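Review this fold:
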Amino acid sequence: MSSRAALWACLAAGFATLFDATVITYAAPDVAASLDASTAGVQWLLASFSLTFGLGLIPSGRLGDVYGRRRLFVLGLAVFLVGGLVAVTAPSIGLLVAARFVQGLGAGVISAQVLGTVQDLFTGSARLRALGAYTATGAFAGLLGPVAAALVSDAAPPGGAWRIVLLMPLPFVIAALALGARGLPGPIREARPERRRVALDLPGIALLCAIVVAATLPVVEPGLSGVAGMGVAAAAGVLTLALIGWERHYARRGRLPLFAPALVRSSGFVAGNVSALLWFGSGMAFASAVTLYFLQQPGLTPIAIALLFAPGAVARLVASLLSQRVFARIGATAVALGLTIQLLLLATIAVSAPLVDDGPLLVIAAAAQIGLGFAGGLVEPPIRALTLSFASTRLHGVAASFLQLTQRLAATFLVALTTGILLTAGGQATAGSLQAAVAVCALASALSLAAALHPALRGDATPPHPALAP
């Protein structure tokens, strides 16, 4: 099977899952109204997908390394499709959130195969081009998804709009199934002797996700205080100690733990991973916060917001296609440049929010989205390629899955945190709460920039970065 056919299958799957991720925010207000969802319910609706996305990444990445990508790819799409059908027909916010958990799990299985396939089939500049194409696909989904969701939200009757919005990604999932069944590599026959001893470290994954849930609970339920708050904090501490002890025990048994020693001992991989997770989490949180804010303002229709923010998706698309050339000229500085632009723009919006009316603020946000889109397209392919280049061949799937796992868990926490901050006033966003939410995103971006400046990630040689040499 050609690498071109495999790449097209990966891009189709990426488009399906990323399209889904871009429309959920536009569905949230109608969900809250029609299902009588609380602020906590909306927070879990927006954050649940990312949590189980991470849960599915590591085991499916390792299984894909051994059994081949195609089988896991098709399984992930099937799980995503089933979760989507349940979500569309859900009669309550509880079942809807549960269905989003299922969809996130399926998306995690898919994504592990996508990045694993890119790692397997491409090297050097070809890998960067493939990752650039994947980022461009996400940017196109980010352009098309909000506009389509906004049109439906404007045209469909209240209470039914969100169901149509959540139905829209499913035809793309079916198309990705057809392409993946033919385009991705099949089972790896020579790996058969290893199949019985593939290490998944499911307890380590479960403990890590439990820690994220424990850290997120006080954010989603700000009323937790006193004994309950102390109990949650104590549980997070106990879970952290349990994870450390388990990972050491698992490694001593000769198994490959979730925190693979070869990866966590690599300062380049760790620095790149920290930078990527904070960049991704802050971007997801900002997009959710600013869209929810303007959806609540009178006189602003969903389609108007989507069209004003569309140029940002176009900028991301263009920048992702140019990122390889920029990286070839300035190396890892491209990542720092993109993160600096993002930090300055987020700080501008945070300062402006309480000082101007909603009309001028919308114009400022729309203009800033263009710069943020360009910065995101500039950052994403290089930071992924740089980080994953520190992994050995046998850890391709593991490294790609771990990178996505930490990104999604960061998004789970930051989306829940910023949504809670935004909707503190009885479920209604204010200019002050928007400022606080965007300030959190700016802080995460600043920390991401600091990690990107780590010497191990930047390298000492002139570009292209030595870690990306074929």
About this structure: Residues 211 and 237 are 8 Å apart (CA to CA). The radius of gyration is 21 Å.
